[in-house]
């Protein structure tokens, strides 16, 4: 094992979680605390690592905080033949909740985890105790990826762009789009995102995900069903300094779709669970406290 600080950070992250078998896929999961379960769904190009601090804050609130690395990302398997679509991921996560023993759970979604999680909630509404939406795109039919992510859609150009994504370039991207106070984060913790993205396959599975975005009306109808007067409470929390999924367009679209009187606004950018974990956890715990007790 390498003794580099980044490798040590990843090793510590791995040691804090566990592996479960989900239909033959070795799947990495963080699972902290006890109490009502809160499942946090990551997007791209991240993994459960994004939620590592926030889950500890949920634990301190008396909750069980969980996050699963989606296939192709983080420490989970990266099979060649997996269905790397939003609905494919939703089906996988439903099975993962069964393996993890989550009969009913609170759901937190972020980035493409939004489309995945809303599809999951629409198809299994009786299992959802509450829904918290973090920065995501709701209009899947018309969504266009932010400029820094568009090259990954294209053959050859995507592979070339991925090769340029190294520690220094990722750090600059994370500073510009990810968090508002990167000076508070050790550089090695930021670098770990790149190593967790690439791992053994060099990021090939990530490229498959980026090339399989679902823009169908069928998926849009599922997302609508998940937020339009569902049988569970919904809230939205937005990093309002996000230059990619800005509040004025994307946040207000979620607010309107879910009929929310307000959206909680936090002073951060797209990957704000990294620096605003305690604040997000408190708002999630507040929604959990307002749900009907489990019987």
UniProtKB/TrEMBL annotation:
<dbReference type="GO" id="GO:0016787">
    <property type="term" value="F:hydrolase activity"/>
</dbReference>
<dbReference type="Pfam" id="PF00561">
    <property type="entry name" value="Abhydrolase_1"/>
</dbReference>
<dbReference type="InterPro" id="IPR050266">
    <property type="entry name" value="AB_hydrolase_sf"/>
</dbReference>
<feature type="domain" description="AB hydrolase-1">
    <location>
        <begin position="37"/>
        <end position="136"/>
    </location>
</feature>
<dbReference type="GO" id="GO:0016020">
    <property type="term" value="C:membrane"/>
</dbReference>
<dbReference type="InterPro" id="IPR000073">
    <property type="entry name" value="AB_hydrolase_1"/>
</dbReference>
<protein>
    <submittedName>
        <fullName>Alpha/beta hydrolase fold</fullName>
    </submittedName>
</protein>
<keyword id="KW-0378">Hydrolase</keyword>
<dbReference type="InterPro" id="IPR000639">
    <property type="entry name" value="Epox_hydrolase-like"/>
</dbReference>
<dbReference type="InterPro" id="IPR029058">
    <property type="entry name" value="AB_hydrolase_fold"/>
</dbReference>
């Amino acid at each position: 094992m390498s003794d580099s600080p980044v490798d040590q950070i990843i090793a510590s992250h791995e040691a804090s979680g566990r592996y479960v078998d989900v239909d033959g896929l070795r799947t990495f999961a963080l699972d902290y605390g006890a109490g009502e379960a809160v499942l946090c769904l990551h997007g791209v190009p991240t993994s459960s690592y994004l939620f590592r601090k926030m889950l500890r804050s949920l634990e301190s609130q008396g909750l069980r905080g969980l996050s699963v690395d989606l296939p192709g990302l983080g420490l989970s398997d990266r099979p060649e033949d997996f269905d790397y679509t939003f609905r494919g991921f939703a089906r996988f996560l439903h099975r993962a909740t069964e393996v993890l023993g989550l009969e009913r759970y609170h759901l937190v979604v972020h980035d493409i985890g939004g489309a995945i999680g809303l599809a999951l909630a629409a198809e299994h509404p009786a299992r959802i105790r509450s829904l918290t939406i973090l920065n995501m795109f709701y209009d899947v039919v018309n969504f266009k990826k932010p400029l820094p992510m568009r090259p990954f859609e294209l053959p050859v150009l995507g592979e070339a762009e991925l090769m340029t994504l190294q520690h220094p370039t990722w750090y600059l991207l994370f500073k510009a789009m990810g968090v508002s106070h990167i000076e508070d984060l050790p550089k090695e913790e930021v670098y770990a995102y790149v190593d967790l993205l690439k791992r053994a396959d060099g990021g090939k599975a990530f490229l498959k995900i980026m090339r399989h975005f679902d823009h169908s009306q069928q998926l849009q109808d599922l997302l609508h069903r998940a937020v339009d007067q569902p049988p569970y409470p919904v809230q939205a929390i937005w990093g309002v300094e996000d230059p990619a999924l800005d509040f004025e367009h994307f946040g207000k679209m979620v607010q309107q779709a879910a009929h929310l009187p307000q959206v909680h606004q936090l002073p951060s950018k797209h990957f704000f669970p990294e620096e605003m974990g305690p604040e997000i956890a408190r708002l999630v715990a507040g929604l959990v406290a307002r749900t009907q007790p489990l019987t």
